[in-house]
Amino acid sequence: MHGKGDKDRETVLPGSIKDTLRNHIESVRKIHEKDRENGLAGVQLPGALERKLPNTGKEWKWFWLFPSRTISMDPVSKIVRRHHVHPSNLQKNIKIAAARAKIHKRVTVHALRHSFATHLLENGQDIRTIQDLLGHSSLQTTMIYTHVVSKNRLGIISPLN
Fold first, then answer.
1. I need a labelling partner for 77 at 20 to 30 A (CA). Which of 58, 91, 149, 158 fits?
2. Is position 10 within any domain?
């Protein structure tokens, strides 16, 4: 799955979620092993890899980090396999979390992206690094985020604080 403009994105991994992520990966590995035991097809590989390396999609390193809970038939190949969680599920869960947190504004995945960039700026991260993390080809696009933090351009803390 690629992001906007068919570009992959990279981000920072907070140390506070390492253990949670390790536990998640172990539970996903069990799903992978069970799928292998049940003879399910592996993940659909990109391009001609599936044809050239027919069993590679069954290898652990190709399995989804966020696999679907259910298996389904691929509509194109008619092969029964496990796919990844659909991106719309992420948006749905963010909406539920916002409602539980009693946030009455519209919260989207994109709003989280904006918050991420804004917090980096507020914490003094340089704009070029943020541009790279967001995958913007133009610095002008990244500069849109600066309007939010322009209230304290110098990042100075008042002596009264």
1. 91
2. no
Residues 103, 74, single domain; the answer is no
For tokens 């991106």, name the residue.
87
Position 159 in a domain: no
Buried-exposed string 13-27: b where 16+ CB fall within 10 A, e elsewhere: eeeeeeeeeeeeeee
DSSP per-residue letters across 80-132: EEEEEPPHHHHHHHHHHHHHHTT--S---HHHHHHHHHHHHHHTT--HHHHHH
Q: Is the Cβ–Cβ distance between 66 and 83 less than 8 Å?
A: no
Condensed to tens digits (0 to 9), the pLDDT of residues 39-90 reads: 999 998 888 888 899 899 999 999 999 999 999 998 888 999 999 998 899 9
Give the predicted TM-score (pTM) of the model. 0.74
Same-domain pairing of 97 and 69:
no
Whose structure tokens read 């981000």?
A: 11
Residues 6 or more apart from 20 whose CB is under 8 A from it?
none
Collapsed DSSP state (helix, strand, coil) of residue 10: coil
**Based on the structure, what is the number of domains in the chain?**
2
Instruction: Determine the residue type at 154.
Output: L
